[in-house]
Every structure is written in C-alpha cells, then in structure tokens.
Amino acid sequence: MNPSAVTKYPVTDAVRHALEVTLRGAEELLPQDAWVQKLARSEATGKPLRIKLGLDPTAPDIHIGHTVVLNKMRQLQDLGHQVIFLIGDFTSLIGDPSGRNSTRPPLTPEQIKTNAETYYRQASLVLDPARTEIRYNSEWSEPLGARGMIELAAKYTVARMMERDDFHKRFTTGQPISVHEFLYPLMQGYDSVALRSDLELGGTDQKFNLLMGRHLQQEYGQEPQCILTMPLLEGLDGVEKMSKSKNNYIGITEDANTMFAKVMSISDTLMWRWFTLLSFRSLAEIEQLQQEVAAGRNPRDVKVLLAKEITARFHSPQAADAAEQDFVLRSKGGVPEHIPEVLLTGAPLGIGALLKQAQLAPSTSEANRLIDGGGVRVDGQVVSDKGLKLPAGSYVVQVGKRKFARVTLT
Question: Cα 304 to chain center, whole Å?
C-alpha cells in the first residue's frame, strides 16, 4: 500500500496559503482534500510536487488568454513546486476533439516542431525557464507501439468515452467520429502516468481529459493526480472568450504601445476579472484597489496599473512607462514621437488613395468608410470630405487612435 495514502500530514498556515494561491481565479479543484494533503506532504518532506500543463502546438502564437493557466503555473512554481511544460508533439498528430463538432485536421510534424519552438519561447515570458522542465510526449508515446496502444485502450470503455459531451452530441446528431479521436484523451491521460503528475492544469474544456489522467494513474497503480481547471478569459469585448478569430485578443508578441492601449480599452467591470486571472498582485492588493475605486478613485488610474503590469511582463518596465506616455499623448490628440515616414508621388492625391498607399487602410473603399466614421485626421483636423485632394507637401495623417504616418507627397 502506498504510505502517502494513509499518512495524514498536518495542515499548516503555509499549506493554507498554498491552497489559497491554487484556488485564486480557478474554476474547479478536484478533489480539494487530496490536494491539501499533497501540499501538506510536500511541506513535511521537502519534496516538490510535480505540476503538469500540456499544450498542443496547434498555432504558432499564443495570446494573453492562453497565459491564464501559465500564470497559475508560475504562482505554483514560486511556491517551490516542479513545473512541467509538456509539449504535445505526439497528441498533435491526433488532434484534440475537445469542444469540436467535427474531426480536427492533424498537423504535419514540421508544423508541430515550428509551433512548439515558438510556444515555449513565448511561455518563457511567464514561466521561470530555469525552474521549468520541458518535455515532449513523443518521448513515451512513440515507444508504446501497437501492442502498448492496445493495452492502453483496454483500460477504458466505449460507454464511458461516449459520456463525453462533444462525442455524445456528435453521435446523436449523426456527425462522424473517427476511432483515432478516442485515442486522444487516452494519450493525454497516459502523459500523467509517464510524468507521475501530482496536479494537472487545463481550461474548463479539458476536464474530461484531465480526469482521464486520474483514472489511468490508478489503473497503473499510481497515486492519482488532482486536477485544476481555469476559466476561459473573456476578450476585449468582455463577452466572447479571447480568440484571434474574433479579433478580441492581445497577442503576447504585440508591440508595447498596442498592448498597453488594448488593455486600457477593456471595460471597468472586466478589469477586475483580468486582475484576478492575469495580475501577479495579491488578492488583498486587488481588494484594496476595488475599495479605493468604490470610494471614488478613478478606475482609469487602476486600469493603468494593470496595463503597465501586463506590458512590462512581455516587454520591460521601461517599455511599459513609454507605452503609458504614448497612450496619454494620443488620448490628448498628440502625435507620438516615432511614427512611420512615407514618401508618395502623384500630387494632388485623393485622400482615399493616400490612405491606401500609406498602408493606413487596406483599400480605398475602407478608407472612405473610415472617413464617413470620422476616423481620419490630417494635421489634427478631422477629414469629412471623401473627395479631398492633397497638394504636394508634408502631412501627419492619423487613422483611428493608434495609426499614424508622416506622409511627404510630391
């Protein structure tokens, strides 16, 4: 019998603090009592817990919505535990069916390799690379072979697999389900066996896969991992989850000025959720800020703190300060210090053609739409005439709040 299953370790203040850190912003911790005992055992024995996050490199870039789970990993890392950043180079060949109403097309090994390198480089902006174990699940998945895969598949039933919501919906509506899709949760669960994981993190859409890890660890005679699901971050609109396809995202490789301005664009209500999920400030500090706003402090001032923290994380404190200055200047109608210089010929030139050629608008028709919306300025003056032709000269042209160019027209 595993002695850790029967030994009861004392729950100290340090353990209670670690539990509070774990639960901050989380959706669900299962089972909580088991996690408390793992934390207590770790403190008593001095042995760090093994905390796993698996990411399939299905796209080359990540946005700050993806960093919600990375932030949690960093918080647990800062408590002294061993963080494992698992790159699903093998599982990407299958394709995660979570939340899908159709079979996900598999990636090529070349795409996976390229994306994986980018993923880790970007994740290292949140995690401490010196204290992060990088693993690829092809290490143990490929050696399994056909025999090992069959033996693994024997440890779970089709009936249990069909309880999974997305499989059930697809089956009842006549949508095809490929047999290889059943292998995905099995392989993700087997990762936990191979890594002897104590805790696995994931989005709320990963709950079935995370529970599979617990099941398979028990099948293989290991102490089962606990699971921690994190919510999906709402994007800039405050409604839909952050997504590139919905254009409500902040890419973690975006320039500092854009990143700062995008954070400043979120609502005062959404700001507090972002503080909880994205900030490294303590909950006590965030509560103090909420009290100050309730007492009359301008929420915009507090949002600046969030924008600077996020921008500094992915750039530098100096870049965050400069981005704040740039934002203030633009909000007052000023011109940023560094803007693109564009040389154009053909004076006199229509404003629509000028915006397109200066790459301030994708097309002349879009330029006209921007003019109709009052979003175009020349030397600080709003342009309302789509028929405006500019003679030879130098102009500061602005589109919206963030696009500028110094255009010299000959």
Answer: 21
- Residue 249 and residue 63 in contact, taking contact as beta carbons nearer than 8 Å: yes
pLDDT digits (tens, 9 = 90+) for 344-388: 998 899 999 999 999 998 888 888 888 988 889 888 788 888 899
Of 226, 193, 221, 234, the closest CA to residue 210 belongs to: 226
Q: Which domains does the chain have, with CATH numbers?
A: 3-230 (3.40.50.620), 256-331 (1.10.240), 341-409 (3.10.290.10)
Report the predicted TM-score, pTM, of the whole model to 2 decimal places. 0.74
Is 244 a known ligand-binding residue? yes
3-state secondary structure string, the chain? Answer: CCHHHCCCCCCCHHHHHHHHHHHCCCCEEECHHHHHHHHHHHHHHCCCCEEEEEECCCCCCCECCCHHHHHHHHHHHHCCCEEEEEECCCHHHCCCCCCCCCCCCCCCHHHHHHHHHHHHHHHCCCCCHHHEEEEECHHHHHHHHHHHHHHHHCCCCHHHHCCCHHHHHHHHCCCCCCHHHHHHHHHHHHHHHHHCCCEEEEEHHHHHHHHHHHHHHHHCCCCCCEEEEECCCECCCCCCECCCCCCCCCECCCCHHHHHHHHHCCCHHHHHHHHHHHCCCCHHHHHHHHHHHHCCCCHHHHHHHHHHHHHHHHCCHHHHHHHHHHHHHHHCCCCCCCCCEEEECCCCEEHHHHHHHCCCCCCHHHHHHHHHCCCEEECCEECCCCCCEECCEEEEEEECCCEEEEEEEC
User: d(Cα 370, Cα 355) in Å, to the nearest integer?
Assistant: 10
The Cα-based distances of 75 to 5, 34, 63, 81 in angstroms read: 26, 19, 19, 9
300 forms beta bridges with: none
Bridge partners, residue 399, by sequence: 376, 403
- 364 closest CA partner among 374, 354, 372: 354
Query: Tens digits of per-residue pLDDT, 268-309?
Result: 999 999 999 999 999 899 999 999 999 999 999 999 999 999
Report CA-CA distances (Å) from 123 to 116, 204, 206, 209: 10, 20, 19, 22
